[in-house]
Amino acid sequence: MKAKLLIVDDEANITATLAQILSEERYEVITASRGESALQLVESESPALVLLDVMLPDISGLELLKKVKSKHPDIEVVMISGHATIDRTVEAIRAGAYDFLEKPLSLKRVLLTVSRALERRNLALDKNTRQAAEEERYRIVGDSQQTKALLEQIRQVAPTNARVLVTGETGTGKELVAYWLHHLSSRLDRPFIKINCAAIPKDLLESELFGHEKGAFTGAISRKPGKFELADTGTVLLDEIGDMEPRLQAKLLRVLETGEFERLGSSHPLKTDIRMVAATNKNLVEEIRKGNFREDLYHRLNVFNIHIPALRERPEDIPVLARYFLDSYCQENGVSSKRFTSDALSYLGQQTFPGNVRELKNLVERAAILTPGYDLPVPALTSPTQPGTSETGLFARTRPLSQARNELEKVFLETQLARFGWNITRTAAELHVERSNLSRRVKQLDIHKPKPYA
Description:
The chain has helices spanning about 10-25, 35-45, 60-70, 85-95, 105-135, 145-155, 175-185, 200-210, 225-230, 245-260, 285-290, 295-300, 315-330, 340-350, 355-370, 390-395, 400-420, 425-430, 435-445, and strands at about 5-10, 30, 50-55, 75-80, 100, 165, 190-195, 210, 225, 235-240, 260, 270, 275-280, 305, 340, 375. The protein is of the alpha/beta class. The chain has four domains: about 5-135, Rossmann fold, CATH 3.40.50; about 145-310, 3-Layer(aba) Sandwich (Rossmann fold), CATH 3.40.50.300; about 310-380, Helicase, Ruva Protein, domain 3 (Orthogonal Bundle); about 385-454, Orthogonal Bundle (Arc Repressor Mutant, subunit A), CATH 1.10.10.60. Strand 3, helix 3 (about 60-70) and strand 4 form a beta-alpha-beta unit. The protein starts with a strand and ends in a 10-residue tail after the last helix.
């Protein structure tokens, strides 16, 4: 059976004809001859679409349209009238009607209109579902005063076009803040493009940002638009801005001052309208003092500063976040719900979490994977130790120095990979090594991803 349709018309012959034709197309059809009964059916039956006559005995069809759309914007409404005027049609469309059909009805057009209206509804519902899932993925969780203040700052600055500099330690959630700055702005339906300045090799970052023309450099076999061009009218997040080399900082400053840039290999200026959000875990004032960051660029980016406190500075958020991550993991992986014992929550609250929220999330997911029962006790949350790899074992056992180096490096790399969700590119950027070198070393040390990341 296809979607449920409601036909509202006081002419019995039209209602019967429409009901028969639509039923033959395997739609589930219900009918009403008055506005009040139609409203009751809308509430009790939740139809996907309403075919609605303009002239009803007890209420104007246009008034009924407005009532339906105000409470149920996802229900598509197709108006029907034997006396359609341009003004009435325009009013109906503005009130949310999908289309306006004139009597006598063309049954072929009715079927086509119903099909297209339902197709639009399904696309909208799919988009809403995806949007809800995205919002949940970027949700900022916490009950502390610091988190509430953070959310208030986001609400204040998001609707503006002000540039924002987001600061905080690695793993605090700077990308989440950038997402909500875009999502709560007037640019919501425009592109949101994220660029990690530390993860992209320095010799490729310029091309990534500004684009290039064919033949601009070896390997440039065709024209490629840059991120600034693709993000026009939207928002750009420049993550790890503190790692951008000074030469590129100068070019970025020009974009911020004039909105202009050129692709590599071109002298033709392009204009872009973007809202810039920058993020860093570095102290940019200190980087300016060292000569690594331009002071004029810092002031251009730092129109509004949002600082995310480290997790250890807001311990009251730890149990809230831990429960949230545990519930999310169980739901996403289709496993039975679990809970922390009171001792486990107390243990988590005493940890410093140098990797911040990301480290807590990884720890909770690992505990959920390794614990078969309902309760997650303290032992499930302690770091894994394999025979001979505990701190005491690593330093107390005598063996060749090369072997000890490999064992120490393996434990270190496993810990760092876990902190960054086993993302090789991200981990390499944080460790300041080439991605290819890290991948090769991971293979040499026989390091394997845990199942949820494999």
